[in-house]
Amino acid sequence: MLAFDLGRKRTGVAYGTMLLGEAQALGVIDAQGDKRMQAFASYIQAWQPSALVVGVPYHPDGASHENTQFAKNIAKQLKNHFKLEVFEIDERYSTTEAIGMNESRRQAGHQSQQNVDALSACIILNQFFSQWHTRALDPL
What we know:
alpha/beta, Nucleotidyltransferase, domain 5
């Protein structure tokens, strides 16, 4: 499975399998529009996922905002373009958690810091795995 932490400028990417139930950061797409879709295609071709997971942001109280609709629109485009199941995961606080993880890695002396966006994609995919094992999730 591939997971995406969508942003207007950058998109974090992570990969994981249902068998292992753990995500690994792959990288960041630093593109918008058609170039972003081409980058999605490259990751999908390289990793051959069975499904996609997209983080959808909400306000802390659960209310939607303009980035909520942006993520939902990209999720629909992915589904229509690549003909894969796409699951939406509530990504509230994933970036905050990723910033903390990245800082911990830096303090621990890890030389290769992973980008916060890619770490956020890992958190989103791990949330998917957790929810998948506790209840069935419906794709778009």
